[in-house]
Amino acid sequence: MALRKKKVYKFSDEVMAKDAIISLIFGGLGFISIIFVVVMGIVLKGAVPFEISAFLLVAAIMAVTGLIFALLSLGDSDGGVLSKRTSFILSLIDIAILVVLYIV
Predict the structure, then answer these.
(1) Which of 1, 4, 20, 6 lies closest to 78, judged by CA?
(2) Has residue 3 got a pLDDT over 60?
(3) What region, left, alpha or beta, does residue 49 occupy, with left being phi > 0 and alpha being psi -120 to 50 degrees?
(4) Contact 29, 62 (CB under 8 A)
(5) How far is CA 103 from the centre of its chain?
(6) Share in percent of the chain as helix, strand, coil (round to 5)
């Protein structure tokens, strides 16, 4: 007779890890900055001033910082798994879009 492993449930008081929240904020602001620069590039037909294109540098810094906080939240035992994964994926999407914009 095979022994069944008991499922271990872990309950946490926090709904989301603090690092995941910070990562989601940075990832969301970075994504909004990227969309803003792309839309302004389309509207201005490529003649984007330096001040607007500097938002891409800000978005890159936010994406990398968000990725660092997402990795820290993955290692943390508090909070839900969905917010941790979402923050990680959002930061990776930001970085991937920035790499594609750099190549193109």
Answers:
(1) 20
(2) yes
(3) beta
(4) yes
(5) 21
(6) 70, 0, 30
Determine phi and psi for 41, rounding to 5 degrees.
-65, -35
**Would you give the DSSP letter of residue 44?**
T
Task: Give the other-Cβ count within 10 Å of 13's Cβ.
Answer: 6
101's CB contacts (< 8 A; 6+ apart) are 34, 38, 56
SS (H, E, C) 5-42: CCCCCCCCCCCCCHHHHHHHHHHHHHHHHHHHHHHHHH
Q: Please name the residues in contact with 92: beta carbons below 8 A apart, sequence gap of 6 or more.
A: 67
How many percent of the chain have pLDDT more than 70?
Answer: 91
Torsion angle in degrees (nearest 10) through CA of 21, 96, 74, 31? 0
Confidence of residue 47 (pLDDT cuts 50, 70, 90): confident
